[in-house]
Amino acid sequence: MIAWLRIALAAAVILAVSIVLIPLQLLALRFDWRLRRRLPRVWHRIICYCLGIRVRVTGRLEDRRPLMLCSNHSSWLDIMVMSAVADVAFIAKIEVAEWPIFGTLAKLQKSVFVVREERRKTGHQANEIAGRMADGEIIVLFPEGTTSDGNRLLEVKSSLFGAAAMAVPASPTGTVVVQPVAIAYTRVHGIPMGRYHRPLAAWPGDIELLPHLIDIVRCGALDAEVSFGEAVEYRADTNRKEVSATIASRIRNLLNSRLRGREIS
Questions:
Q1: Would you tell me how many other CB atoms lie within 10 Å of the CB of residue 166?
Q2: Which UniProt keywords are present, listed alphabetically (predicted)?
Q3: How many Cα atoms are found within 13 Å in the side-chain-facing hemisphere of 94?
Q4: Which residues pair with 234 in a beta bridge?
C-alpha cells in the first residue's frame, strides 16, 4: 500500500510540474530562447527527486567549449541523471524520436536524432551538431551505441566519435573537448547493490517501460554517482580510434571505481 501511495504521489507531482514547465519549454524552443537549455535541468531534478534518485557528483564538468560528454549507458535513468547535473542535449538514434514518452522528452530537450545507415543525411546532422556545440551547447554521446546491465562498459564504437571530428571545423579554437563520464548506480535504500541487484536500475531494452518505471518508483531510493574524468582535445589531425580507446579506458576506470567504492589508477 505504501509503495502504491508513493507511486500516486510521484505521478501527481510529475504531472503538475510538467503542466507548468512543458508549455514554457515549447515557447523557448519556438523562439530559440537560451532558457530551453536550462528548463530541462529543472524538470529532471524534480523528476529524480520524485523517483527517489539521489545523485552524487565527483570530478568537475569541463569549462572549455565546444564540449562533448561521452558516457556509459545502462538505462533511461541515465538521461534523467545526466540532465539533472548539467544543461545538456543528447545524440540519439532516429528510432528514439518515435518512442512513447522518451521520444517526446527527447524532442523537448532538442536532442539530435541521427540516421547512421543513411550517409546522405550525415552532412546535415553533422552541421547541426557542429553548430550547436560551437554555440556553447554541451552534447552527450553514448558511444556504446546500446544499453548494458550497469556492471560494465560495453565495446565503444569509434565511428560514433565522428560527431566530434565533424564539429572541429566549426570550433573557434579548432578543438573540441571530449570528456569521459561514468554513471554508476551503487545503492538501493542505502545498501550497496552489488552485481546481482544492479540490473534493477538497468534497462536493456527488452523490458517494458511502464513496469520498469513502476519498479523504480516502488524502490523509492536509488543512489546514482556521476563521475567526470580527464578530457581529451580533439583536433583536425586527431586519430579517432586513439581518442575512442582513451575515452573508453577512462570511462571504464571511472565506472569500476564507483562500483567498487575505491579509486582505480
A1: 19
A2: Acyltransferase, Transferase
A3: 8
A4: 176
DSSP code at position 119: G
Q: What one-character DSSP code corresponds to residue 97?
A: G
Question: How many Å apart are CA 86 and CA 138, to the nearest integer?
Answer: 8
Average pLDDT along the chain: 87
Hunting for cell 556504446 — which residue is that? 144
Query: What is the torsion angle, in degrees rounded to the nearest 10, for the CA atoms of residue 187, residue 140, residue 106 and residue 256?
Result: -20
Tens of pLDDT along 202-227?
A: 876 666 767 777 777 777 688 999 99
For 137, the 3-state DSSP assignment is: coil
How far apart CA 169 and CA 80 sit, in angstroms, is 31
Q: Are strands 191-192 and 176-188 parallel, antiparallel or unpaired?
A: antiparallel
Residue 39 neighbours by CB distance under 10 Å? 20
**pTM as predicted:** 0.91
CA 148 to CA 35: how far, in whole Å?
33
Are 94 and 118 in contact, with CB atoms under 8 Å apart? no
pLDDT in tens, 142-155: 999 888 888 999 99
| Strand, coil or helix: 174 | coil
Q: How far is the first Cα of the chain from the last one, in angstroms, to the nearest whole number?
A: 46
Instruction: Show the cell assigned to 3.
Output: 509503495
| 253 grid coordinates | 576506470
Q: How far is Cα 59 from Cα 136, in angstroms, rounded to an integer?
A: 21
Residue ranges of alpha helices (H) inside the chain are 2-30, 35-51, 77-85, 102-108, 122-134, 162-167, 194-197, 209-219, 240-260
